[in-house]
Each structure stands twice: as structure tokens, then as C-alpha cells.
Design brief:
single chain, ten-stranded antiparallel beta sheet, alpha+beta, Jelly Rolls, four-stranded antiparallel beta sheet
């Protein structure tokens, strides 16, 4: 586990390939839809805007053992770096990007609070595929100066990255193969 001050916290290849395969086998059969832009869960209206986001997604509903995994790493990252008041985990999303698909620059936060007054505070992504099985699909962040950062530590299979939901990020176009990941958001009371 390592810290990239002050933007993100990560673990490189922390999950073994067997666990990544189990997650893929568990999530691949779930019903999928095309990823939307906007957050319909918080009262916003999700829209199908393929010029910004083109991927297939499936929700991993509670209760599920995958929540224990992502919440464990979210707590470690939060204790080590962010110190946010986190009170719940939003529905985990299993994402799949095929050749030609991407998600352009965006933030995971900014919508209205949910009915509990909670907002997205931390975002997490877990890399499930071996990067030798796809090309493109790089995960990138922008810092406060809008400088683009390519977290190479996150590219290996089984790597985890945690960052503030207000941080701009993207998934570059996949040019061949398939890139699969788990994405999770951790919520708490609005900042004051």
C-alpha cells in the first residue's frame, strides 16, 4: 500500500488473480445496461450519452461478500489519508469496456445529497483484468492544477485505487480486448 500525496491512495496487485477471476465469474452473469452519465440514485436523471461514456455496467446488490472486500480497503485508505466521515457504500458497479469504449473526464460527486443528506466522498476502482489482455483503457486523474496523472501503480491486475469523488478522472478508450473493473462510492454527510 502506498500514498500518492495528496491525490490518491493505492495498492498495487494486492488482490490475487484467483480472486479477480472469482469476481469476474460472479459479476459477468449479472444483468447489464449501458453506463449512463448522471446519478439517478440521488434524484438526478441519468442519461445515455455515449459520446461521454460507453461501457456496460451491472450493479452488485447488497448483501454480497464483495461489499466486505471493498469496504475493508476503503476503511484502510480513509484512515491512512482522507479522514472523511463515511457512513455507507453505494451500490457497487461492475464495469466492462470493450474496444472503442471509454469514459471521458468526469467527477463522481456534485449531485444533490440523497434522502439521508449523504454525498459521494470517496471513489474506488479495482482493476480485474491483466493489462496484457487489453490495450488502451488507462485510468487517469487530474490534480487541482488540472495536470493529468497516469497512476501506473493501478495498472496491474488486482490493483486498487481510492480517491476523492470530486477529483476529475477518466478511462481512456480501450483499443483491443476487454477491461473489467469494480467501482464503488462511499458516502457520508455533506462537507461543511
Amino acid at each position: 500500500m502506498n500514498l500518492h500525496q495528496p491525490l490518491y491512495y493505492y495498492w498495487t496487485a494486492i488482490l490475487p488473480p484467483e480472486l479477480c477471476e472469482l469476481i469476474i465469474k460472479t459479476c459477468d452473469p449479472l444483468p447489464r445496461s449501458t453506463g449512463q452519465v448522471g446519478n439517478s440514485e440521488f434524484g438526478g436523471k441519468g442519461q445515455l450519452l455515449t459520446q461521454y461514456r460507453s461501457s456496460s455496467v451491472a450493479g452488485v446488490n447488497k448483501p454480497h461478500w464483495i461489499y466486505g472486500l471493498v469496504e475493508y480497503y476503503a476503511q484502510l485508505a480513509n484512515q491512512a489519508m482522507f479522514h472523511y466521515d463515511i457512513q455507507e457504500t453505494q451500490v457497487i458497479q461492475y464495469s466492462s469496456y470493450e474496444a472503442g469504449q471509454e469514459y471521458t473526464w468526469h467527477r463522481d460527486s456534485g449531485g444533490p445529497p440523497d434522502d439521508k443528506g449523504h454525498i459521494r466522498k470517496l471513489s474506488m476502482s479495482i482493476q480485474l483484468d491483466d493489462p496484457g489482455n487489453f490495450t488502451g483503457g488507462d485510468f487517469r486523474l487530474r490534480n487541482a492544477d488540472y495536470l493529468e496523472i497516469v497512476p501506473e501503480e493501478f495498472r496491474p491486475r488486482g490493483s486498487i485505487i481510492v480517491f476523492p469523488s470530486s477529483c476529475q478522472h477518466r478511462v481512456c478508450p480501450v483499443t483491443s480486448g476487454v477491461r473489467r473493473s469494480l467501482v464503488a462510492w462511499f458516502l457520508g454527510p455533506a462537507f461543511r
